[in-house]
Design goal:
The chain has nine helices and 15 strands. It is an alpha/beta fold and 302 residues long. The longest helix is centred in the N-terminal third of the chain and has 20 residues, at 7-26. The protein is elongated. This is Glyoxalase-like domain-containing protein.
């Protein structure tokens, strides 16, 4: 009978097997340098592969970036909203990010968790709620889309009061605290993360990337694909800075909105208002009146 492998050899064996799995899915995009004892580790029970925090999420980004590519700024994106909301934005000089928790009924968060076997997120948190409700309470987002969306008529109808509202053109430059990514949708094709974990199962391993709770908020049912959403997301950390405010019954995360050519220094994201387009059932003069006398008075109106 052969002697059992010493712990270091079992570690090397497991990591080598994992490396091959990642290579099979990511190909040349695999960050080969992370498969060392200084960058990754195996849990004591030998069942979980983790990346050390000091590795700055290199492996996590390589995996998650396949299906949820991070956008770098500055990038011009659009946001559809009502004329009433535009007036509130002008008055506050802020854009408000909404809590993901308010949209759980639309498949937010749970869709990704279910498909990727994150069953712990559906457990009771000890206060009569699911864990995912707690997590999504601390995630705040705004929905954006790239210019030229072929389904823009749907966006006008759904988000801009049937064309009575406006479309904001925004120049967005995220900071490390603001996660700006293209959304992914439940098409039936498994994500890179799911492919990796399905293959790792034969090795008795599961890979849990850093930022996994945030990535849950970048995945929606297929029916939302027409929106072609790019989402800006901010996470409220326990014990960290909490910038949330109350707006009626809602808790929102405010991000300062700059006038053209200006900056705000907002820690979450730099957002500049570039242009406002009136909907087909909205008068341009009404938009101009909403901007008049404000720091946005010089913003182009179309």
């Amino acid at each position: 009978m052969s002697a059992p492998l010493p712990p270091i050899m079992r570690f090397v064996e497991k990591v080598d097997a994992a490396h091959k799995v990642f290579r099979s899915v990511l190909g040349a995009a695999t960050p080969d340098q992370v498969f060392t004892e200084s960058a990754v580790t195996i849990s004591g029970d030998g069942q979980r592969l983790y990346e050390f925090t000091g590795n700055n999420g290199v492996l996590a980004e390589a995996v998650l970036g396949v299906d949820f590519p991070r956008a770098t700024g500055p990038i011009e994106l659009e946001h559809y909203t009502t004329l009433t909301s535009l007036k509130a934005i002008v008055a506050s000089r802020q854009i408000h990010l909404r809590a993901v928790a308010a949209y759980l009924r639309e498949g937010e968060f749970a869709t990704f968790a279910q498909e990727h076997g994150l069953q712990g997120y559906f457990d009771d948190n000890g206060r009569g709620k699911q864990v995912l409700e707690d997590l999504s309470d601390n995630l705040f987002f705004i929905s954006l889309t790239k210019p030229g969306n072929p389904d823009e008529a749907t966006l006008w109808d759904t988000f801009a009061n049937g064309g009575r509202g406006v479309r904001l053109r925004l120049r967005v430059t995220p900071t490390p605290a603001g996660d700006l990514r293209t959304m992914s949708y439940q098409t039936g094709h498994p994500t890179a993360l799911k492919q990796i974990n399905d293959a790792l199962a034969s090795e008795g391993l599961v890979y849990t990337p850093w930022t996994i709770s945030r990535i849950c908020a970048f995945y929606l049912p297929l029916g939302y694909r027409v929106e072609r959403e790019v989402r800006l997301l901010v996470k409220r950390h326990r014990g960290g800075v909490d910038r949330t405010i109350q707006r009626g019954p809602d808790t929102v995360w405010p991000v300062a909105l700059a006038a053209p050519g200006a900056t705000t220094g907002d820690p979450a994201c730099e957002i500049e208002l570039v242009e406002v387009t009136a909907g087909l059932r909205c008068m341009a003069t009404a938009v101009q009146a909403a901007l008049a006398g404000s720091v946005y008075a010089g913003v182009a109106v179309s």
